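S1.2 Input.
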Amino acid sequence: QVQLVESGGGLVQPGESLRLSCTASGNIGSIYRRHWYRQAPGTQRELVATITTGNRTDYADSVKGRFTLSKSDDKTTVYLQMNNLKPEDTAVYYCNAKSLLTPGDFWGQGTQVTVSS
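S1.3 Output.
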C-alpha cells in the first residue's frame, strides 16, 4: 500500500504564494505518476498538476505559469509551489498517486487553501 500526507495549506492574500507538500510512504517504488487535484465547494474535483517518474510535468491551463511541481531527492515528497495565488484557487487540494499495486489509486486527506483579502 501507499500512504500520502499533505501539508502546507493555509490562508493567504491574492498575489501571495504557498508551497504544498505531499509525502509518500509504504510501497513508494510502485508509484509511476503523482497528481495534485483540487475541489472547491459545489464543484467537481479537478486535476491541477501531474508529475511522472521521469519528472515530466503537466498543468491545468488555469495554473500554468503560476504553479510548479518538483520532487525531493529521495522522491518521497512532491511539492506544489503556487505563486500569484488568486481567489479562484481557493479549494481543498488533494495529493494522488497512481501505483502498479491493486488498487492503483491512492489519496491524501486534503489540505485547505484559501485565497482572500
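S1.4 Remarks. The longest strand covers residues 18-26.
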